[in-house]
Structures are given as structure tokens and as C-alpha cells.
Amino acid sequence: MLITKENLGDGVRRLAAELSSAYQDGVVLVAVLKGSVLFLADLIRALTIVPEVDFLAISSYGEGSGRVRIVKDIDVDIAGRHVVLVEDIVDTGLTLTYVLGELARRGPGSLEVCALLDKAARRIAPLALRFTGFRVGDEFVLGYGLDYAGYYRNLDLVAVGDLGTLREDPRAYVDGLYAGPS
To answer: Dihedrals φ, ψ of 98, to 5°?
Structure first.
């Protein structure tokens, strides 16, 4: 286990307080599907402001290529508004750079990123993350929205998994991570 349920809660509440303080006049939270959904839900509940929320979904052209396309776009007009892109994890920054560019073309008043996890060790594209929950090393992480082959997304913690093991058996950690206290 890398980040416990309790530590996740503390981090989300801290980020919610930072966002609530920074955007007292309103903010549009744009979440990237599907990984950020759990984080976004907890973040919204912890805010002391009322945000507008929208979603976008992206599809990658290949692992690590940074080439993506938007397959579900936001519905709200963000021109002149404060916008925060909510992400589960930022690693190379290539995908995030693309998405930020697409949103910036729509003329928001401001555009920032709120990432639950920052995997800066893998960063290729230079990015400034204004709101960051946790910094993680160059390990493969699972849980709290992050999945492998559809497994582990609903965990209320973040765990480290071995990618080689998961490629052999995507369910390799199911028994251990879902067992709970004995």
C-alpha cells in the first residue's frame, strides 16, 4: 500500500480547501474520465464553494505516445471562466499538455490543474501543477480510480503493483487488495 484511505481523505480535504480559497467566485471543474471520477466525487463533497462540473474523455493512439483525441468533449462554455482540470495522475505530461492546449483555445479566464498524484520522475513535458495531492515515485500505481485492465479502480487506497505481474495476470492483486482487515 502506498497511500491509505485516511491519507487520501486528508489530501483530498487539503486540495478542496485550496480550491475553495482560490475560487470563491466560482470555478468549472473539468474531469478526465474515467480515472478521476472517485477523486472528483470526494473533492466536490469537500469543497466549501459550489463548482460547475463537466467531463471529457480521451483516447490514446498508443501507450506513451502522447497522441490523444477527445472522444467526449465538455458541454459548458468556459470562455472567460476559471477552469481547473481534475486529473487522477500526471506522469509524462504529454496527454495533459494536449488537453490543456485544447481547453486553452476556448479562452478560459484561467486554467489550472488539480492532480491527485504527481509522478514527476516520468515527466517529459514541462508542466506547472498548481494543486497536487501526492508526489509518487516511478512505480505503477493502482486504486482510487487507477486501474489495470478494468481492475482495482474502486479501491479506497493507492497501492503499488508490478506491471510484469499484472500483464501475466490482471487479477494478481485482487485477493490481497480486496481482502480488507482479517
So the answer is: -60, -50
Residue the block writes with cell 517529459: 124
| 96/35 Cα distance (integer angstroms) | 13
- Looking at every residue in the chain, the average pLDDT score rounds to 91
With cell 474502486, the residue in question is 154
Domains of the chain are 5-136 (3.40.50.2020)
The CA distance from 111 to 70, in Å, is 18
Number of alpha carbons in the 13 Å side-chain half-sphere of residue 146: 20
37-46 vs 5-22: helix crossing angle, rounded to 10:
60
Query: Which sequence positions are flagged as catalytic?
Result: 91
Give the pLDDT confidence score for residue 69 in this predicted structure.
83
Cβ neighbors of 121 (< 8 A, separation 6 or more) are 137, 138
31 closest CA partner among 84, 81, 94, 103:
84
H/E run at residue 97? helix 94-104
Q: Are strands 28-33 and 82-90 parallel, antiparallel or unpaired?
A: parallel
Q: What is the pLDDT of residue 181?
A: 56
> Contact 22/102 with Cβ under 8 angstroms?
no
CB 96 within 8 A of CB 114: no
Q: Assess contact for 42 and 20: CB atoms under 8 A.
A: no
Model pTM? 0.90
